[in-house]
Specification:
Blueprint (H helix, E strand, L loop, with lengths): L18 H4 L9 H27 L4 H12 L8 H8 L3 H13 L3 E5 L7 E5 L1 H24 L55 E5 L10 E4 L17 E2 L7 H7 L8 H13 L1 H13 L2 E5 L8 H14 L10
Parallel strand pairs: 3-6, 4-5, 4-6
Antiparallel strand pairs: 1-2
Helix pairs in contact: 4-5, 8-10, 9-10
Amino acid sequence: MPHPCDSAPGSHGSGSPSLGAMAEPDAADLGEEEFRELLELRTELRRFLHWSETRARLAGVTPAQHQLLLVVRGHDGASGPTINDIAETLLLKHHSAVELVQRAEVAGLVARQSDAQDHRVVRVTLGTAGHEALARLAPLHLEEIRRLRASGHALASGGGEGPDGAARRVRAAPGRDAPVGDASVGDAPVSPGTGGGTRVAGGPLDATVRDVGAAPPAGSAWRVLVDRRWPAGIRADDAPFDEWLASLAPPGALARAMGEVVEPDGEVAAAYRALLHGSHGAELDRLVTLARTRGLVLVTGAPDAARSPAAVVVGALQERAGRGRTGPASSR
């Protein structure tokens, strides 16, 4: 398989500018804010990449195959890219690109065919399985980009001017940055409710908060981590939650004002709920639907789950449901 260090010629070596030539300001001239911005950007970049890799694996392809499919589908020419095109786009050496295409072809994701004008040239096109994988992955990634843009993340607007012309800044926090997945409602299947029945979209709002160490087992309810930081000592492959929505964690100044213990009826909590309704309405609606159709557990590493930011999110979900945004409200 292509190795991350097996990059295309020209990406390293004498043809590339040295780090010294690229570095304009001296590190001594940089303040805490600049280093914080650098860390936040790198954190958000890794978060998105890990989220994307997780979604790819859930769709039955490797992250490298997902990137290959995007190169093939997004290529300008109608006849598909060549191996050289793929190698240049993915920053791979030629033999690594050949190996990647061969593996994808065996899986039915792509097909190789001779160029109509020059039979010495091999073109790569999408196979049936490749079309199906992109049909599952592309909408999720576009929705994630829209969510990031709405949240003001720099990755969704190229780090500069967004669609509205306003400069955007990354608001991710340092720490482990690997979303377990940002599944749509369809990814969390409807499960039997109590009494042998089935939860329905207009049913009771089954949303609770649990400590990360006391999260229910997989399959019992849709479990969402809403902390800004990944919990210490938790591995991604055995995480006690199905999804990580760090975007719902209180940002910057609000997080500092709130702390890890917050009074649910206090002014800071009210400001947090208002922010959630104003900036994350679509996400709240999705969680309300999950709470009614499958059951929802918000997982947190805060010292007091009942007085944590996650508990405030549950309050926002209850308010959202009470407004009739996703169905009539019900008391538990």
